[in-house]
Amino acid sequence: MRFWAREKSSMSSSRKVVELFYDVVSPYSWLAFEVLCRYRNVWNIDLKFKPAFLPGVIYGSGNQPAVMNPSKLTYIVSDLTLLSEYFGVPMFRPSDLSEKDTLSAMRFVTALAEKEKEGDMLVERVSRELWKRKWRTHQDITQPASLTEAGLKAGLSANVVKEILSLSKSQPIKDKLKSVTQEALEYKVSAFNLHLCTLCLAHQKIFVVEKYNKMSLHIFPPFLQCFGFPFIVCQVNGKAKVFFGSDRFELMAYFMGNYNGLGIY
């Protein structure tokens, strides 16, 4: 399976930043993570990893965990089987689909991100190893010994792993993870293009205003906001657009000017 994209020349010099908010408990975040890593050079984007805490987002947005909805859970099992084949990211259904606490794991990744001053290669490697343990080999990711194994397999030295484990328990790292989670929640969107909001109309009070012969849709509280992961913020020359889920890559490409036929062959 190979991915391809052709970039529009008119946007080749644009500054494009993509922020990925994720938690390793989320398999859909893993799919988005791998695809964005593949497209990083093709799209010429500055990809920034934003490790956060999914339960904090779910609670803060008033959403409910997928495990609370049996119908959704059944669909997710079938959906992930097909998506893992489609994107070439092997993952297998855990025997227990309940959302285990990943607070220690995400603090570990956050501590590594704070220590890794230049680039994010180690954050990428460690995050991938944690996803593999959770969704491929079904190993623990909550205990220090498990985090140590993941760190060593990702290429960290034993001394660095020990340092990161210690740092992950510090108050500054706890505060950092909390602040990044809050940052995701604060990306509230009050206006959408009309054709992208069809599914929202039944749940929001709206009115349409015509201005300069263009239709704008104004949505009043409650605002649409981050309610789960992966949560992706794309910025082109200071203009931002948010996307939820691992199936929005064509829209991202279109927004960033990279879309002139995006597909798989």
Description:
The chain folds into two domains: 3-188 and 225-258, Glutaredoxin (3-Layer(aba) Sandwich), CATH 3.40.30.10; 190-224, no CATH class. Residues 1-12 and 190-222 have low confidence and may be disordered. The chain is an alpha+beta fold and 265 residues long. It is built from nine helices and nine strands. The chain has a four-stranded mixed β-sheet, sandwiched between helices. It has a three-stranded antiparallel β-sheet with strand order 4-6-5, with no helix packed on it. Strand 5 and strand 6 form a beta hairpin. The longest helix has 18 residues, at 70-87.
User: Can you tell me the CATH architecture of the largest domain?
Assistant: 3-Layer(aba) Sandwich
* Helix and strand sequence: EEHEHHHHHHHEEEEEHE
Structural class: alpha+beta
CATH topology of the largest domain: Glutaredoxin
Number of helices: 9
Q: What is the global morphology?
A: globular
Q: Detail the poorly predicted runs.
A: 1-12, 190-222
Total strands: 9
What is the C-alpha radius of gyration, as a whole number of Å? 19 Å
Helix content: 40-55%
**Strand percentage, roughly?**
15-25%
Number of domains as seen in the coordinates: 2
Mean pLDDT: 79
Q: Strand count, sense and closure of the main sheet? A: 4 strands, mixed
Pfam families: DSBA (PF01323)
GO cellular component, one term: peroxisome
Catalytic activity: RX + glutathione = an S-substituted glutathione + a halide anion + H(+)
GO molecular function: glutathione peroxidase activity; glutathione transferase activity
